[in-house]
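User: Second chain of the day. Same drill as before.
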Amino acid sequence: MAKLAISITHAKDDADKATVGFVVANAAVASGQETVIFLSTEGVYLAKKGYAEDIHESGFAPLQELLNNFREAGGTVWVCSPCFKKRGLTEDDLISGATIVGGAKLVEFLSQGAACITY
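Assistant: Same format as last time:
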């Protein structure tokens, strides 16, 4: 099984990039790849409960649906710890199934041969 990291650095500031990141992540996990989404900078807001509910780019499924499908298919969601804290968010704000991690966790995953795509 191949490993793929999808780094998403946008949320409502560029909903198109955030949505496409989740579309690609869903395709990867559906094809049997070990897939991690790493949310950083503005992207961490996607890990906040209720935040993604009103994001729907034309031509794509709603982002909340893409997020739910990804988690249900066995995808992993990591949230950049300093980015999350910088924005005043707490663990109580976090969606279920997401894990707050430091950059070292992503580096470890990448060092195991994972490819990385950034949106």
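The domain at 3-118 is CATH 3.40.1260.10 (Hypothetical Protein Ychn; Chain: A,).

User: Great, on to the next one.
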